[in-house]
Fold:
Amino acid sequence: MINLGTITTQPKISLTTSQLSRANCWDHILARLGYRRSEHRVEPGLYAIGKPTSDSQVFVTANYSLSFDALRSNLEGKDGYILVLDTQGVNVWCAAGKKTFGTEEVVLRVIGTQLKKIVNHRVLILPQLGAPGVAYQEVKKRTGFKVEFGPVRAADLPEYLKTHQATPDMRRVKFTVRDRLALIPVDLFRLLLPGLLVALVVYFLLGGLIPALSVLAALFSAGILFPLLLPWLPTHNFSTKGYFLGFLTALPFALSVFSRHPDRSWYHQGALGVGFLLAMPAVIAYITLNFTGSSTFTSKTGVRREMFAYLPFMAWTFAVGTILLVTSVFIH
Amino acid sequence: MFDAYAVNTLAYEADLCNGCAMCVAVCPHAVFEMNGRKALLTRPLACMECGACQLNCVTGAIKVESGVGCANAMIRAALLGKPEAECSCG
Structure:
């Protein structure tokens, strides 16, 4: 919500630069690690970059520090205004999905900052990924400003600003190895503590290093290998991709049963092996199904279909696998 | 069975298109393409239902049930008994 107290006769304009400080870089690292995720914020409002005049362009962004910094660092040598919306510290695309990067917020900010008094033109340049939240015709009607959707990535802005025409490539969202690598720490750190706890419990309950290692191996596969290998894993569904990777991860653990327990009967060995093959892929597939939200292309319809198709299967295979593993420890 | 993404809710009525090309500009997956004065739905299955095209289509030619394609959000919504999934990462 806009703070009415800031509407004074003299528009308030903060200053910023295209330079990223060491503090900014440290903030980016913490954000990438998921530390205090919603606290990487910039004060919403109007900013001046360079030496803008009343003819300078206005760029709109979210008040997530990574979004704001991506924009300003790509405006090096340019004079302009940056209108920061209050998205509660959420990036442009996700905030657009929640409509906090939305028509209402754009309209209120334009009015609240008295932008009409500051610039002569009536154009706002928005990131393309703000479009799920912003209806251009509505902004035009209520503020008089024309919304121009710029490129997806701020890095393409210098090129875009030469012609104000985005190439088809600038319009496409990608999910490169680099993009996927950047996502690994957040998920891994979130899973690490519960993972270690489960590994400890397994170590003492099942009394073995190998079962405890299987928990960590599952985390490693789902948290690191899966994002890296995503495009090359077979099938389209994240669950089946996860099952494929999970089966490969579980196989050495299942086979290790025969060398570790040569003295046990074949059905005892079999139960343990099958236990690993059922429980581990289920856990991995569950985590990888949850990676749909981090990806850039899954639809709500598709994810819902995946969930209905595979969640019950995951629950059953996990339960049966765990029962096999636990009982074979107590039954000799 | 292995492709849950073979269907989605995107619907396009070409008769209503006024050729403004906003759908082409806002779509992150090149689902639409301009063909003269009309938008063409060329890659319907690449749609991720973000809803940007529908919101920016002044003639109402595009309809899509938009929402977040995030299992985590939907599982949480189901567990909390909420009707609509809402993303709550960072």
Summary: Chain A has two domains: 4-171, 177-330. Residues 260 and 269 of chain A are 9 Å apart (CA to CA). The domain at 4-171 of chain A is CATH 3.40.50.11600 (Rossmann fold). The mean pLDDT of chain A is 94.
